[in-house]
Amino acid sequence: MNTASPVLPLASLDRLSLPIAGGKAANLGELIRAGVPVPGGFVLTTHAYRMACNHPAFASKLETLATVDPQDRTRLSSLAAGLRDEILALPMPDEIAEAVVRAYETDLEGVPVAVRSSATAEDLPDASFAGQQDTYLGVLGAAQLLDAVRKCWASLFNERAVAYRADRGIDPRQVALAVVVQRLVDVRTAGVLFTANPVTGRRREAVIDAAFGLGEAVVSGATNPDHFEVRVDTGEIVTRRLGDKRLVIQAVDAGGTRNVERRAASTESCISDDEARALAKMGARVEAYFESPQDIEWAIDKQGDILVVQSRPITTLYPIPEGPLSNASDLRVYFSFNVAQGVFQPFTPMGIQFWKAMTAGAACHVGLFDGDLLVGVPLWAVGGERLFLDITGIFRNPLGRKLFQFASSRMEARTGHVMKALASDERFDEIHTPLWKIGTAVLRGLYRTRAPVTLAKALAKPDAVPARIMSKVDQVIAVANVPAGSTPAAYVDAVERMLRVAGPQFIGTAMPSLFGALVSMLLMRRALGESLSEDDVHTLLRSLPNNPTTEMDLELWQLSRRVRADVQARETLLTVAPPELANRYRDRSLPAVLLRNLDDFLKQWGDRGVAEIDMGVPRWRDDPTHILGSLANYLALSDDAFAPDAAFARGALEAEKMAAELGQRARARGFVRGNVAAFGIDRVRRLMGAREVPKFGMVRMIAHARALLLETGNLLMREGKLETADDVFFLDISELRDVIGGKNMHEVIEQRRRDRAREMGRRHVPRVILSDGTEPEVGLSRSTGPNGLAGTPASAGVVKGKARVVLDPIGAKIEPGEILVAPSTDPGWTPLFLTAAGLVMEMGGSMSHGAVVAREYGIPAVVGVPDATTIIATGQFIVVDGGAGTVCHDEPSS
User: CA dihedral in degrees (644, 647, 651, 653; nearest 10)?
Assistant: First the structure.
């Protein structure tokens, strides 16, 4: 193939042709190679585009565009318009014009053609750019063709295309555009085919939209098409919905197209059931060839033949998790560990390794697993670089289903609704396990962990629980001590020792202690019965003792007060951006008061961070940018009456009053109930806060393992085996040992970095997904309140104020009185809670982390509100009713 030629036949292209032909043309070339019927044609290559646009004025504008902030839409729009004008005013180079006209008149015989843009950054596996550039149909004659080519080139800088690339960090100087010229199909019917259901995610379910005439009417949304959903494996048409098809786009003999408006709606289907099945079968063939679900534009000519005019990957589908049980013949149910933990972003490979090994050690300890700890228990699966649990076995067991629904409804309320709906799916028949088997396993686990003894100790001495758990953490960390000057292998050995003992040490102490809080809550609810309202519970759970997360936040607040008293430190925090403050911390050039106090804080709390349960994520000790930003934010709080520590103290008093009142209610129902309630109320207060202790202990272990691995990375970098020290987090333990042994893993690491960067941009992570790709939540109706949204009540109270939508807490600023709207939260987010007046979360339940901390600070909170960060806009006035679980629009007071 002559890559310098301005024109190439479509049949000569393949996926390697992307740089010269763009994504659309490269895919068409692949389809032709696969034997799929495609209208004949050629491509005007990116070489031609660069030849035409090779002049200083254009290059200067392009350089400027590359430096613009992606959020500066006005500037982007202005520059994009200038670039379009430059291209449209360009004279077409003779060499290009002659090559295009020759190919058109010789190969396509001068017939009407479709002229389509084909950019080098479109129709890719991770970015489809669907509809970003222009297409021209019914182009006839050399003059019209050359004009359409120039317009296609200019469409590379449509506002939507420029913004799309800017949001994804694609350098505009690296993008070029080819132009596909194809024979226009003498069409009867045309439309779009998705080889997987783009709404539910279900694979092997073709979705077809079809209309009479050219497919542009369907693609542009100008007509209401016929809609079919076809099961590929059986040919069953599960949905058939006829559209009115009032608008038909037709080619005109003299060139171009025309819109024909029908007076009456069409009552006939534009394709037969057999044609729908044939399209589904053809789509499956294309999907198999490209090895991924496809978005296909097709046409049926007047002879009844099906032709494909375009195929691109469907990039919006969530990847189906893969694990040891993925190849099972039955339908699997995957539950998102990330969602449950309030972590939207992907895990690093080493972060995944930690959870696999730690849980395998725990399972081995209770007699449920005897395999390789580094491989992990078969329940784990990975999808979209995130962790899922294969809960199929649990869900199909009657007792397991009830327990899981109970737990999920409190930890992530929307998941509870999903699981309840899924329980009615006939494909998940219950499989009964003999009770003696379940009982034997439970007794064995209780015996090996000594859980009843630990539970009794927790109930007897609740204030000793944090120290007992932390002593186990200290023991695990002590196992991994390494002498200075050790080899890389010695550090990896230490991490593996730690991973092997973490689960057994931890499960016997942490889990029974947590169970003590649940037992106490159950006792209290049983004793008080219907006299106990959820608002009462929310008040009782305010300002809980023994919670390391609130202790950390309040210490950070006190730090801000000490820093505020120092003029130099205060001015530095208020005038210097957080990233620069972090740099000054690292080079020890911060004001002395700020430096000393920050050192003390990070000595105690530096193991924490945003998404801290992933070992590959920096700790605050590594990068204190977020903490320094929070300190600057706190300086805006000047009224001590509204200070977080004062609010926490008021919450404790209100909780104590509620505890006394609840005790009186219970005693009025009898002596025994009164004593049981008093015991339960006291233990709820003292144990519920301690639920955060095991997680903090886990974070300490993760941080220690991270430090060991970073030292390993530094040593391997000096030996030339790794590019950077944090490359270690893009490998698992076995792969890291291979690197120590001399294996080159540079390409693997770089690919995983690219995968992570792509997944960091994913906004949607399903709570539950099935092995056929279906997301059961799609079928649930969204709860709505009066004039707004509804979720799960999490912290009682009503607050009105401006919303502040935050997707990433690092660098975020919450002004006093604003309401934080977030996808989810983990402890790394909680410094923002101190200045927030309320909280709205897309994920979570009444016992999720965000709900617990919101109650402790006494800020109204509603969690489990689907799409809250999309529906609510920053600056919008909203009303949050944490007791009713509603979020409503509000008008600002005049």
Answer: 120
Q: What is the mean pLDDT of residues 465-472?
A: 91
Report which of 8, 47, 46 is spatially closest to residue 29, judged by C-alpha positions: 8
Q: Are residues 282 and 305 in contact, defined by beta-carbon separation less than 8 angstroms?
A: no
- Per DSSP, the three-state class of 482 is coil
CATH topology of domain 778-889: Glucose Oxidase; domain 1 (3.50.30)
Cβ(404)–Cβ(420) under 8 Å? no
The mean pLDDT of 12-32, rounded to a whole number, is 93
pLDDT in tens, 389-429: 999 988 888 888 888 887 777 777 778 788 888 888 878 87
Are residues 734 and 483 in contact, defined by beta-carbon separation less than 8 angstroms? Answer: no
Judge whether 849 counts as a catalytic residue: yes
- Between the alpha carbon of residue 846 and those of residues 48, 210, 342, 416, the distances in Å are 60, 46, 13, 12
**What pLDDT, on the 0 to 100 scale, is given for residue 123?**
47
Angle at 717 between CA 714 and CA 723, to 5 degrees: 120
185-317 to CATH, choices 3.40.30.10, 3.30.56.10, 3.40.50.300, 3.30.470.20: 3.30.470.20
Distance separating alpha carbons of residues 514 and 472, to the nearest angstrom = 15
Q: What whole-number distance in Å separates Cα of residue 74 and Cα of residue 78? A: 6
Question: pLDDT-derived band of residue 42, with 50, 70 and 90 as boundaries?
Answer: very high
The amino acid at residue 767 is R
CB atoms within 10 A of CB 444: 13
Three-state SS letters, 128-197? CCCCCCCEEEEECCHHHHHHHHHHHHHHHHCHHHHHHHHHCCCCHHHCCEEEEEEECCCEEEEEEEEEEC
Q: What is the pTM of this model?
A: 0.87
According to DSSP, the β-strands at 861-863 and 792-795 are: antiparallel
Active-site option among 47, 538, 704, 849 = 849
Do the domains at 1-183 and 185-317 have one common CATH topology? no
Closest among 795, 605, 794, 612 to 695, alpha carbons compared: 612
> Helices in 291-348 by DSSP H: which ranges?
337-340
The domain 1-183 belongs to what CATH superfamily?
Answer: ATP-grasp fold, A domain (3.30.1490.20)
